[in-house]
Amino acid sequence: MGDTVWTMPSHAAGDAALAHSRPRDRAPAEVPVASERLGAMSTREARADVAGHVVVIGGGIAGLAAAHRLLDRGARVTVLEASDRVGGKLLPGEIAGVRVDLGAESMLARRPEAVALAREVGLADRLQPPATAAASIWTRGALRPMPKGHVMGVPGTAAALSGVLSDEGLRRIERDARLPRTEVGDDVAVGEYVAARLGREVVDRLVEPLLGGVYAGDAYRISMRSAVPQLFQAARTHDSLTEAVREIQAKAASAPQPGPVFMGIEGGVGRLPLAVAESVRARGGEILLKSPADGLLRTPGGWEVLTEGHVLAADAVVVAAPAPEAARLLRTASPEAAAELRTVEYASMALVTLAYRRADLALPEGSGFLVPPVDGRTIKASTFASQKWGWIADEDPDVVVLRTSVGRYGETEVLGREDADLVAVSRHDLREATGLDAAPMGTRVTRWTDGLPQYPVGHHARVARIRERVAGVTGLAVCGAAYDGVGIPACIASAYAAVDRLGGDLRAVHELTANPVQSLHGGAGE
Prior knowledge:
This protein is α+β, with helices and mostly antiparallel strands. 35% of the residues lie in helices and 20% in strands.
């Protein structure tokens, strides 16, 4: 995983006023990029201060970011985390004496929130871009260079996918210019639309593994409006999909953004929540571990939060928990929002981390590779972590760290296997893909049950309905990966919007609902 909070494997949606008025159609050239829109909001001088005691339920990166901003806005803050650690899907670990990430491992740097927060909490000198951006795709029996000239796997020309697709698949792309317009309506599945325009092979060989690396989902179910919003906007105004992609590319080329697309942190992205938590505590915030929220009650003066037999009085509450937990907590305060939250589905997956002696292997160049499900392999990606991140290679030059990801939406059998079996199937696929036959000196299996929320067709409308219902309850806000994007910056943006809403400023919430945040794939293995 990369940017997903998952931004797991890259590697991530308003209130009442917006819920009653759909955003007007605009050509892509009229829509500012997300980092411009929300970056300006996150740094604006007009602050929405929040008074009193606020309880934040959930100690993942969204909950911690909310607590951090609440302290900036003058609130007294208590964070409740059910587990024995903070960070959620951001988890630092170690293998063979080398520090690694056991969850999300990179964050989108073209958006301001995650990198800015890292700098605020003292990690500025630890920020590092990937050492290599080159990646491959393991398909049709070979490792092939990841194509360039596409938007989340959708090409501007057939030639862009030469070497990955068959000759028949390339010819099918060329038919796009002659096909009648395909209406996208209010939303459409990415895979369904792209297959109708360019053929299924584009979806199966490239779009599916790229989207799967972000959501661990099914491209034929995932919302284009929520997952690839720039492509959705372009499809609304173009008859040809390849023409729409070329316009997106031309616009990007005319205003190139400086700096790396993705960023990591020396020691692992898992250091970010630890640093945020330390900052929250240093400024007087309280973080209670092993403290699940058992209930949430509205009172005449605010809220009562039940936790482990205790009652916390609060003036406001931010629910930064996964959708099922949020639904349970809101069933009395906002039954309609709770009903919507219960419909959010999740994908489970496992990460298999392996350490090898450098003398025992010779890997292909690059950061790793993706695997299309259509090829029938077990792993969906592999990251050559020691080649992708310079700090991993520097920690022990004699050790090489790799990781694979296993599991997608709807797959349950493979995740029921023993750890040793997951290591064995990972080694088998790595041997088939790269020739790696050495025995690892260390292995770790990290399971993320219900780790990634799914964004099916209509997700944006569901989020708008949730926020409309929550907006009717004074002193209540929600945030996290289930709403506005699964990447780390998206979760932080969601948290900031929730805090602003408590202070009476609805602009960020409205913007996120109208223009969901795209969570990009951070390279192989994300």
